[in-house]
Task: structure prediction
Amino acid sequence: MKETCREIIDDSMLALHALAKLMPRLTSQCSLSEMLETINRTLGSTLAWISVDDDRGYPRVVCAGEVTCHAFDVTDFLASTLLQRHHRAWRAIYWKENVGKSLFTAQHPGYGQLQSGVLCKLSSHDGSCNGYFFLAFTRRLQALPVLKNIVAVLVEKLKEYFAEMVSRERTAKEMQRVVTQYKTLFERAPVLMTSFDKGNRCVLWNVECEKVFGWSMAEINAHADPLAVFYPDPEERRRVRSSFNVSPLKDMYEWHPLRKDGAQLTILWSNIPLPDNSILNIGLDITERKKVEQQLALKATTDDLTGCLNRSAILQQLQTAMAETQRPDAGNRFCVLMFDLDYFKQINDEWGHQVGDSALVHFCDRLREISPAHSALGRVGGEEFLLLMSQADSEAAVVLSARLRAALMERPMQMGDKSLTLSFSAGVVEVCCDQNDSSALLTRADKALYDAKRSGRGKTVVSRDYL
Result:
């Protein structure tokens, strides 16, 4: 076999046939070591290696053959060879004999075993050197021109291979960079990003999810139904599951899952279908924003001192209640009680405005304690209050007024070692269908209240006027 291979190199026709057989086998699907092994088998060479620099400038050596060769052997060989040829331009260097003595130390088996050899530059299109290709034989070759032609063809093929390899490596690195960026984005994004598979197991759970919900993905998947951790109510859980499995919601939709500590959150979720038919859930935690909105809404409708509705809010409630009476349902009626604290100016003058404020709070607290569940209490003026009693008549309003007087008597306002029993006057208007003028209704209530004060205060008067 060795003799046959030597004859291939020494005979140009045989060499041409060998190349024709060899070239189709050198494809980009082969690894570099597989390509070198194929070259050795086809041409009868004993050692083949390639040295190329990686992105950091360090030599990368791949070798194949019966004689072993290490990276440091190649590095030393190239250093000495290139130093000798420093001032001379070259593409290939040939050794007719004793190439092993140039490559190895005297203790290496290849030192005396290798005879003929060739070293070629692997140059890029711009002429820069990307690496080196080396081929060595155990026999002394006679026809170096044939070897030159074979190696020239091989070098071109190897240059194509390296061009594809570099392209693949660059593409792989770019893909890795993109993957790393997206992984970093996924992990560090200040939004909730999660996904559940068709078996309802959590398969994606970023850092923000763990931070907001308090659960790790392993803890979630330890439950038979992970969604039950966040949505204990079966019906709500069914709707949530449907939102990302059956009919994904592309718009942001508000859900109220539970944290690990049991606190309820307000999350805006949107579902994004992915190419593999899975669903990526992206969410925003708006719990604190909702709390602020609720606080602002409460502040906009609440009297700062007493905590009851302010004038604007109670009048809006009155309009709504009057609109309800226009419905054809039987029994749509309500009562309006207008209260005014008696002698309130004297309280302010004698005790001071701070005590006056406390008197207003004390009055509202007692009134709230005895008011029906669906009533609405609002402050319409300094010491004037309006109470709306749904589904109540004037008789019920008078009874409530009497209970309030009793409560104020039983629990007078305490100021240190002194106490103050509050008194009030009230006007009552019973509202039923066909009454839709709130201004006229308030005028009636105010007139009834005035009648109560004029008759001696501490009384409740029911309006007998009709629109």
User: Anything to note?
Assistant: The first strand starts at residue 47 and ends at 53.
